[in-house]
Amino acid sequence: MKAPRSLPVAAIRLAMAAAILAAALLFPLLPPVPTAPAQDDMTHLAPDALAPHSRPAARFVHDTHNEKARIDECGTCHHGTTEDGRRDPAAPTSEGTPCADCHAAANGTGGKGTPLERAYHRQCMGCHREQGKGPTACGGCHTKV
Questions:
Q1: 28 burial class (0-12, 13-18, 19+ CB within 10 angstroms)?
Q2: First to last CA, the chain
Q3: Which end of the chain is less enclosed by CB atoms within 10 A, N or C?
Q4: 0.85 exceeded by the pTM?
Protein backbone atom coordinates (compact mmCIF):
# COMPACT_ATOMS: atom_id res chain seq x y z
CA MET A 1 0.00 0.00 0.00
CA LYS A 2 1.28 3.43 -0.95
CA ALA A 3 1.44 6.24 1.56
CA PRO A 4 -0.89 9.18 0.78
CA ARG A 5 0.81 11.98 -1.05
CA SER A 6 1.12 15.13 1.05
CA LEU A 7 0.96 18.63 -0.31
CA PRO A 8 4.05 20.76 -0.27
CA VAL A 9 4.21 23.32 2.55
CA ALA A 10 4.19 26.16 0.03
CA ALA A 11 0.86 24.97 -1.42
CA ILE A 12 -0.70 24.77 2.06
CA ARG A 13 0.47 28.29 2.89
CA LEU A 14 -0.88 29.59 -0.42
CA ALA A 15 -4.28 27.96 0.21
CA MET A 16 -4.45 29.43 3.74
CA ALA A 17 -3.53 32.89 2.49
CA ALA A 18 -6.23 32.66 -0.20
CA ALA A 19 -8.85 31.62 2.39
CA ILE A 20 -7.90 34.49 4.72
CA LEU A 21 -7.97 36.99 1.85
CA ALA A 22 -11.37 35.73 0.70
CA ALA A 23 -12.78 36.02 4.22
CA ALA A 24 -11.37 39.54 4.61
CA LEU A 25 -12.91 40.63 1.30
CA LEU A 26 -16.30 39.04 2.00
CA PHE A 27 -16.65 40.15 5.64
CA PRO A 28 -17.71 43.73 4.78
CA LEU A 29 -20.52 42.30 2.61
CA LEU A 30 -22.22 40.63 5.59
CA PRO A 31 -25.35 42.43 6.80
CA PRO A 32 -24.79 44.45 9.97
CA VAL A 33 -26.04 42.91 13.18
CA PRO A 34 -27.75 45.48 15.42
CA THR A 35 -26.36 45.61 18.91
CA ALA A 36 -28.51 46.29 21.92
CA PRO A 37 -27.45 49.02 24.34
CA ALA A 38 -26.17 47.89 27.70
CA GLN A 39 -28.99 47.19 30.13
CA ASP A 40 -27.31 49.35 32.77
CA ASP A 41 -27.47 52.37 30.47
CA MET A 42 -31.17 51.95 29.66
CA THR A 43 -33.22 53.84 32.19
CA HIS A 44 -36.84 54.80 32.42
CA LEU A 45 -37.89 57.31 35.02
CA ALA A 46 -40.94 55.64 36.48
CA PRO A 47 -40.67 55.70 40.25
CA ASP A 48 -43.14 53.50 42.08
CA ALA A 49 -44.09 56.57 44.11
CA LEU A 50 -45.82 57.98 41.00
CA ALA A 51 -47.79 54.82 40.20
CA PRO A 52 -50.23 54.38 38.60
CA HIS A 53 -48.63 56.09 35.62
CA SER A 54 -50.87 58.07 33.29
CA ARG A 55 -48.20 58.24 30.56
CA PRO A 56 -45.39 55.91 29.47
CA ALA A 57 -42.28 56.20 31.63
CA ALA A 58 -39.91 58.97 30.61
CA ARG A 59 -37.02 57.38 28.71
CA PHE A 60 -33.70 58.63 30.07
CA VAL A 61 -30.32 57.17 29.15
CA HIS A 62 -28.18 58.74 31.87
CA ASP A 63 -24.64 58.56 30.44
CA THR A 64 -25.69 59.34 26.85
CA HIS A 65 -27.75 62.32 28.01
CA ASN A 66 -24.94 63.74 30.15
CA GLU A 67 -22.37 63.25 27.39
CA LYS A 68 -24.58 64.99 24.84
CA ALA A 69 -25.50 67.79 27.27
CA ARG A 70 -21.86 68.10 28.42
CA ILE A 71 -22.84 67.65 32.06
CA ASP A 72 -19.81 66.69 34.14
CA GLU A 73 -20.97 67.55 37.65
CA CYS A 74 -23.48 65.23 39.35
CA GLY A 75 -24.78 68.17 41.40
CA THR A 76 -26.13 69.76 38.21
CA CYS A 77 -29.09 67.39 38.49
CA HIS A 78 -28.58 65.67 41.85
CA HIS A 79 -28.77 68.88 43.88
CA GLY A 80 -27.99 69.19 47.55
CA THR A 81 -30.23 70.86 50.10
CA THR A 82 -30.01 72.95 53.24
CA GLU A 83 -31.21 71.56 56.58
CA ASP A 84 -34.64 73.09 55.98
CA GLY A 85 -34.92 71.28 52.61
CA ARG A 86 -34.18 74.19 50.26
CA ARG A 87 -32.07 73.58 47.16
CA ASP A 88 -28.42 74.45 47.83
CA PRO A 89 -25.72 74.14 45.13
CA ALA A 90 -23.02 74.31 47.83
CA ALA A 91 -24.41 71.33 49.77
CA PRO A 92 -23.26 67.76 49.05
CA THR A 93 -25.11 66.21 46.11
CA SER A 94 -28.07 63.88 46.49
CA GLU A 95 -26.51 61.38 44.07
CA GLY A 96 -27.64 57.87 44.95
CA THR A 97 -30.70 59.05 46.88
CA PRO A 98 -34.04 58.42 45.17
CA CYS A 99 -35.85 61.69 44.45
CA ALA A 100 -38.94 60.30 46.24
CA ASP A 101 -36.96 60.24 49.51
CA CYS A 102 -37.10 64.06 49.56
CA HIS A 103 -40.01 64.90 47.25
CA ALA A 104 -43.54 63.86 48.23
CA ALA A 105 -45.53 61.87 45.71
CA ALA A 106 -48.92 63.18 44.61
CA ASN A 107 -50.58 60.53 46.75
CA GLY A 108 -49.02 62.17 49.82
CA THR A 109 -46.50 59.46 50.70
CA GLY A 110 -42.94 60.36 51.69
CA GLY A 111 -40.89 63.50 51.31
CA LYS A 112 -41.75 67.15 51.70
CA GLY A 113 -41.48 70.36 49.71
CA THR A 114 -41.85 70.25 45.94
CA PRO A 115 -44.04 67.30 44.87
CA LEU A 116 -42.14 64.53 43.07
CA GLU A 117 -43.77 64.89 39.64
CA ARG A 118 -43.26 68.66 39.66
CA ALA A 119 -39.65 68.20 40.78
CA TYR A 120 -38.92 65.95 37.77
CA HIS A 121 -40.68 68.31 35.37
CA ARG A 122 -38.99 71.43 36.76
CA GLN A 123 -35.58 69.78 36.72
CA CYS A 124 -35.76 68.40 33.20
CA MET A 125 -37.96 70.87 31.33
CA GLY A 126 -36.48 73.84 33.17
CA CYS A 127 -32.98 72.90 32.04
CA HIS A 128 -34.17 72.13 28.49
CA ARG A 129 -35.84 75.55 28.26
CA GLU A 130 -32.85 77.32 29.79
CA GLN A 131 -30.43 75.62 27.38
CA GLY A 132 -32.80 75.89 24.40
CA LYS A 133 -32.28 72.17 23.75
CA GLY A 134 -34.18 68.99 24.52
CA PRO A 135 -37.87 68.16 24.72
CA THR A 136 -40.27 70.39 26.63
CA ALA A 137 -43.58 68.78 25.63
CA CYS A 138 -44.98 65.63 27.27
CA GLY A 139 -44.45 63.38 24.25
CA GLY A 140 -40.79 64.35 23.99
CA CYS A 141 -39.86 62.36 27.11
CA HIS A 142 -42.89 60.12 27.61
CA THR A 143 -42.56 57.99 24.50
CA LYS A 144 -43.94 54.51 23.89
CA VAL A 145 -41.15 51.97 23.59
A1: exposed
A2: 70
A3: N
A4: no
